[in-house]
Every structure is written in structure tokens, then in C-alpha cells.
Amino acid sequence: MRYWLVMPAAGTGRRFRGEQPKQYASLRGRSVIEWALAPFLADARCAHAVVVIADGDPHWPGIAARLASERLSSTAGGAERSDSVRRGLAALAPRARAEDWVLVHDAARPCLDPLDLERLIAAASQHAVGGLLAVRAADTLKAAAADRDAPAVAHTLDRSQLWRALTPQMFRFGALSAALDAAFASGRFPTDEAQALEWRGAHALLVAGAATNIKLTTGEDLGLAAAILGARAAGAGEGFMRIGSGTDVHAFGAGDHLMLGGVRIAHTAGVIAHSDGDVLLHALCDALLGAAGLGDIGQHFADDDPRWKGADSRRFVSAVLSMLRERHLRVVNADLTLIAQAPRIAPHRAAIRSTVAALLALPEDCVNLKATTTEGLGFLGRAEGVAAQAVVLLREG
Prior knowledge:
By secondary structure, the chain is of the alpha/beta class. It has twelve helices and 18 strands.
């Protein structure tokens, strides 16, 4: 299975009252939108993600450069959220088929649990219409009288049938495009994708999700999101720990750059490899596979398989993470070591950490990168190649 992602991010977040729109606020070492994108960029089933931004957005280009994903692009949004989603779908239309699945996720929802994403995909993909993550109403709900300044209770609602709609929401590409186009043509603006389909008589499946999948609305919500992500990063809850290590080596060859940790680095040579030869990500894959008891990278991505000729090694990491999710394993932290006389890693350390953290859906302080030399000894000391080691910790549950 594959799916497409549309992330509306053209809003200004007036109620948030920050120095910048809420999707770009800083949250545990990353922007909110980077957290929101992370589960999808780490999922090999996500064919491409389109972020829908405001015209002249000064914040997005730097984030896009930092993420440096070939599966990520942007397009200009509209005045209403539903129009922004329409434009995101239009940007995907040349590549997506009508029967393909498309997910829509709010840029201001940084706390999506990958397990909730799995539950949504598993359930919605078996439903004729699709589905959305939602949470049952837990509080007593009151309908207010018309006076906005001093509202009084009009009546109490029956909460037994009420749910709070979350994102992502998942529908067939053609059906969602047609529903939003019809709404726009009639001058109506649905508040979520499911409502647009309801107006055409199609009713989506409600998939129970976690209440921690909050949408940032005010500045106070940022602290709550930090607490949720902090607890998750600390491995809150039960589950056995698993440790894995990995090593990779490549000889230098013809070329003018190296790929290290998903970042292109100019160099006087390339590496001899079947894929892009990213030793850091190959070592990371081996460590992840080892911790999960799933063999090594060669068993899953053979170096004589034409599918992997020149392949971006981030695809390998995403595929390995999908294997881990199937076994209910998640990454707690990763420690990477580059062993080479050259190139110097210091100027690229931040970009590599950020890229690897995004791949693993971790805060940057849970990804470490070190570099060392062999003091001129051996083939590495003679600058004939490059090597890397990785150690990771996984948690079950």
C-alpha cells in the first residue's frame, strides 16, 4: 500500500499570539510542523507529502532545506482551510490516481502517535469511504444560547454519540477531490474533510485515537505538547528494551560528494556502492534490524538487486521503521559515529542530526553524532574510504 499526504499550513494562528504562526513555533528542538511531518516522512508507504503554505511564507524554505526530503514539496494555499487542501490535492493530481489513498493532517498537530497512524490506515483502508482519527466526548457538553458575550446554557447535549474529530483523515483521492470541489463551487467551506464527504452522502469511519493528538490553538498548548513529546521520548510506559549495533564501510571512488546521514556533502571523491553509499544510514539500518532480531541490511536490500541501484538510503531507514512498527517496536535514541580522515563533519553535524531525527520521529537530543579518525592508521587513515558505527535503543509497546 502507498498513500499521499496533504498538510495545510497556510494559517496565521491569530489565537496563538506568537511571534510567528503556530506551525513554526519551537518545540523540543524542532518546529511544530517538523514534528507533525515526522511520522509520515518516516513511513515508507508515504509516496509524497505536500505542505500547503501561505504566499510569501518566510519560514518554510529553511525547514524544507533542513528536512531535505525528495518526498516533500509545497504549494500555495487559499483563504480557507478547505481551499488549501484542494490546492494540495491539485498539486498531487499529476501523480496520484483516483483510487489512491490520501491523508490530510494538521500542521499544528505535533503529537500524532505512529501507532495511531497504523490503526487509522488498517481500519480506514478496509472501509468503503475511508476514516478519521477521533476521540469520544468525555465531558458533559452544553449548548449555549445566542449571546456570545454572556452565554447561558440552552440545553445539555447527549454525548453518547459525540466524538471529537482529529487528523489525519484518510479518503480516496478522487472522492475527496470531488467533494471539496463541489463544496467550493457551492460557496461552502467544510471545517474538515469528512464533512465535505458527508455533504455528498458518504459517511467516514471513526477510528478511536489518542487524546494526546492535540491541535495547538493557544500558546498554553505548546507546553502541553512539549510534555507529551517529552514523556514519549523518555519511553513512558512499560515494555522491554532492545539494543542493537551496526557498522558499515565504503571505499572512496569517482565522484564529487558523499551522502552522510541523508545530507549531501561536497567532497573530492564519492564512494563505491550499489545505492547512494550512505554509511551512517546503512549502519543505522543494521543497528535497528539487529535490535529487532531481523538480520542485516543485506538480507532486505541486496546489493545486486536493481531496485536499489543508486537508491536514497533514507528509503531503507523508512522501510526498516515500518518493520519495527509491525512488531510494536519504537526507537528511543540513536548514537552514530563517523570514522574518516575526511570530510570534516563539524559544519554538517546539525543538518545530519536533524535529518536522522526526522527520519526516526525523535527529538534531536535523542540523536547523537560523533566523528573520529584512525590517527592515520589503516585504509581509513590513508583516506581510502569512510566507515560508520551506530547503536540504537528500542522499546516494545
